[in-house]
Design brief:
about 350 residues; alpha/beta; Nucleotidyltransferase, domain 5; five-stranded mixed beta sheet; 11 helices; binds 5'-O-[(R)-(carboxyoxy)(hydroxy)phosphoryl]adenosine; binds zinc ion
Length: about 350
Amino acid sequence: MRTELAEKRILGVESSCDETAAAVVRGGREVLASVVHSQAPEHALFGGVVPEMAGRSHLQHILPVIDEALADANTRLSEIDAIAVTSRPGLIGSLLVGLSTAKGLAYARGLPLVCVHHIEAHAYAATMETEVDYPCLALVVSGGHTALYRMRGPTALEPLATTLDDAAGEAFDKVAQMLGLGYPGGPEISRLSEHGDPSAVRFPRYRPRDGKPGFSFSGLKTAVLYHLRGQDALAPTPPPEEIERREDVAASFQEAVVDVLVEQTLAAAEAEDFSTVVVTGGVACNPRLRARMTDDAEERGIRAVFPAPAYCSDNAAMIAGLGFHILRAGETASLHADASPR
Ligand code: KG4
Ligand code: ZN
């Protein structure tokens, strides 16, 4: 029996970084199941993702995670209409695990295969739960990316601005490490910041010198380092118990990141006359960013849309969701499809 297009169930597979994820989504929007296995505890010992370990861990977890998603969705593999998988960008060894698995399933069941761009899927996540008018502005802010896009539709993203150096999430992770907090650093810093004074330390707010929209976080990271060590570049970073008012440092750092993200995003929205901004990616889980962006946008007559936190960080629902639109456009991939780190 043929399934109506709007009813098609897509199995999504995501393995671009350190989350092994699978999801079943109907009609591009209705999430029947979304399972995420985070490798964070495995990488925490090293303070960041170890690519070699990530690939091996995906290999161990990918089939159980897919089985769990199908069981949660009360769906048999024979009821799936297509397989969508992240093929770029990401860690190549990690991407290949997801892509090979998806190809195997598609081949065995004779199903269409759809390759999904991870960043486009992050942007799509915001529009999966909330209807938006296109074109709108998308801020994708994660551990690997901090960039603004003109979004003309689910599969049409044009880059407008990016970070000149580090991604915001990377800065959260590095500063957390300096403060003796765990990995990933974003959630740790936002928790500690609740008890801190965001105006205690005036950290610099860097932005591109040419006045165009963009981001820069590496100087901020260095400023936090000098704040902790003093001006002696060779001095060791003090142990966490010797850092005075760690919560104030965390809150002041977070405020600097949020200030830059909000200011640059809303300036770009005004310059391009967008009435909606979607904010997505792991850092979009940050409660301070969500509150400040929402309030400041509202003051300027702009609507800020965020996915639920579970769909901000890496997940496969956004892959299956966007995969539906790619399938609908007839853009299926061949079994020769390749993965790419960029
Ligand atoms: O989107 P994501 O799960 O993976 C990438 O594609 O990079 O983003 C992970 C990043 C990490 O750097 C993590 O520290 C950050 O998102 N993050 C946060 C918060 N939760 C996760 N950053 C700030 N505040 C948070 N609450
Ligand atoms: Zn991501």
